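Ticket closed. Logging final result for ABC transporter permease.
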Amino acid sequence: MLVYLRVFKESFAFAINALRNNKLRTFLSLLGVTVGIFSIIAVLAAVDSLDRNIKESLSGIDSNTIYLTHFSFGPSEIPRWVRDNFEPLQYDDYEFVKKNVSGIDAVAYSIFGSNETVRYQSESAENVTIVPASQGISKINDFKISKGRFYTELESNSGSPVVVLGYSLAETLFDNTNPIGKKIRIYGRKLTVIGVLDKIGVSFGDSPDDQAVIPVNFVRSLINTGKNGLPGAIVIKPKKGIDVDAFESVLKQKFRGYRGLKADEVEDFFISKVSGFVSLIDGIISGMNLIGWIISFFSLLVGGFGIANIMFVSVKERTNLIGIQKSLGAKNRFILLQFLFEAIILAVVGGLVGLGLVGLIAVISSSFTGDFEFVLSFKNMAIGFGLSTFIGLISGVIPAISASRLDPVEAIRTGM
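Final structure:
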């Protein structure tokens, strides 16, 4: 056992010495592996970070939450020209669902696509996403209030001029001033701030921190929500423990009857679940990971070929030394380990440099992107370290074997 440890130690020392004596060659070999490891780990870290931030932004929403819309969130077999003629969902549709479909924990009618400038005295915030929604949206999205309160069912139904601000929007308009009771201007109308949402941070799409939530009936009195207006949707949160598939079937059947659709007619509406949306995201993330691996494979291939080429050159240059070592009693395994360690050290150091660069970029990116956290996970670091070691092993094994099999007399004669 001690003999093998000495062989490993001496082989490692020879490899380090060889790398130190050929600094330019070592640097160029490191560069190839560094680029390869950097490429693949950067892609994996970026995709993982995107996936994590999306999942965290949806964590407050029940995965069984259902969106009833006249448009599809994903691919559809129904032709586009047919979908374009579907009747948008109106407030009356929401009232029908609320009164006639059982098993509902919370339901809301919401309008999409309203971006406005929000003003308070001399302060203003442009292109703010306005979320006109009935009172149930608070329970569905699990809104947490940091100041004030959310609007009531009565205020929602009557269209009261009140507003609940996202955390960042409130800071932009009021800085350190308490916004509760202050009047801001949206749609050219004055609304009273009655609440501020807790800071959510990460988000997929527009962050609730930058939004303003107002009673949907207030907006309906100002903006057209019909076929040529802003689209609306009914958001439904089924009761816990309910059979969601059965609930969806009942909802579809009742809404078909409400719309007067015959048995052979296609639905002029779509029922989408958050869980289906998450599955769609998982599919996209998997595709992005696959593309990242394919692109990075070629970078790793170049790095591996670079190390193999350098090792063959190294064997050629040190043929005479190999012959002398073997003539003095050096075993084949000592020569093999010497060159194998050299290749592995090159690859591992290059991989560590690549990981370091990804970590540095992760820190810098996170500081510039604010709420989006770019994370280099332990899993990705392990993948990077493992890949770099594997590349070194594969790239160095053939040159190392060829060096260990050299005949000492021929090696000395060739090197002279």
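The CA atoms of residues 318 and 415 lie 8 Å apart. No further action required.
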